[in-house]
Amino acid sequence: MAKNDAVSVLHATLDHRRRIDIPGYNRILLHPATRFIGTMNYGYAGTRELNEALVSRFMVIDMPEMDEDSVLFVLRQHFPDGEKNALKAFAGLFLDLQIKAYHGEISTKSLDLRGLVSAVKATKSGLSPIDAIQMGIINKSFDVFEKEIIEDVVSTRIPSSWTGKDIWG
After folding, report:
1. In the beta sheet, which residues pair with residue 20?
2. pTM
3. I want to staple 122 with a disulfide (CB 3.0 to 4.6 A). Which of 77, 132, 154, 160 is the partner?
4. 77-101: per-residue pLDDT in tens?
5. CA gap 121, 101 in Å, rounded
């Protein structure tokens, strides 16, 4: 996240003035169709509160937590040939971790949809599902106690006996 004094350069860009003023350079006027889109994972490691002046220049869309349908949609988009029950198990794993993170039982480090997709993809290359989940989800946490909680959640959704055939048929 940029420091407030660096972000303040954007204030004139984002309000009615529609220009960038940088000392020592010419004033840059923005085209009327210019748009800015900013994203933030609020509460995510490395983020901090935005200053009021910046927030007042944006419309804010508060995205809800993912539900089963949205996680399954993402998994089916990436893996249309995946077994439905296996994809449902992976979606359930993500949702279980989301609940644990929401209640503060674990950090959000292992709540990683990109990591889940990468783990499922790795099983296509021959990595066992449990090893793939270990690398893509469990190992994102470096706290031993937290890692044990995540492993317990994984064990309720992803059987250690699974092979690639359980996911890909």
Report:
1. 28
2. 0.75
3. 132
4. 999 999 999 999 999 999 999 999 9
5. 24
